[in-house]
Amino acid sequence: MDPVYDVSDLNEDGLIDNPGDILFRKKTRTGQKDNYSLGIGFSMTWSTPTDKKLQDQCKQAAQASIDMMQQLTANKRLDFEIARLKNCGDLMLKGIQFHPKSPYYKICADVVVNNPPGHTHPHVHAIPSVSSSSGTQHEEHEQHGSSDAALLGAPLTTK
Predict the structure, then answer these.
(1) Which H or E run includes 32?
(2) Is 88 exposed, middle or buried (0-12, 13-18, 19+ CB in 10 A)?
(3) Element holding 69 (H helix, E strand)
(4) CA-to-CA distance for 116 and 56, rounded, in angstroms?
(5) Which of 21, 23, 69, 76 qualifies as a FRET site for 100, CA 20 to 30 Å off?
(6) How far is CA 101 from CA 44, 50, 57, 98, 106, in A?
(7) Residue 116, preceding bond cis, omega within 30 degrees?
(8) Structure pTM?
(9) How far apart are CA 117 and CA 124, in angstroms?
(10) Cα separation, 86 vs 22, whole angstroms
(11) What angle do CA 16, 17, 21 make, to 5 degrees?
């Protein structure tokens, strides 16, 4: 039902006398009826690039971007590990470490300090050779090794 409005101008001044007043309602024919529809369809598209060179360049650019991101990640990981190694080593030289039962003990567990101050590594001492009365005996011991303490250079006194 549509409203029909009062548009009368009884005093002829050019203005509607009763704007918005509904005089009556009338039936409006729409012609609408029940409609049922069922549509089933199938669509398929096949596309082929016409410029393979451009497609190859796109793939190369994507691979270069991936390689760069992986290298940046590897660099950051190396920076982290070197900083961890340096800090753990400095703390170990100072005698500072986490308690073995601490969950943070494992952070520096794989760090080894090889040359603490005042200690050289590898540590080797020279053993002087002893001259013997018979040169052949001395040469024999040098060639085959010796368990004789006198040949190692230490004074041997027996009573």
Answers:
(1) none
(2) buried
(3) helix 52-93
(4) 56
(5) 76
(6) 64, 66, 55, 8, 9
(7) no
(8) 0.41
(9) 17
(10) 91
(11) 90
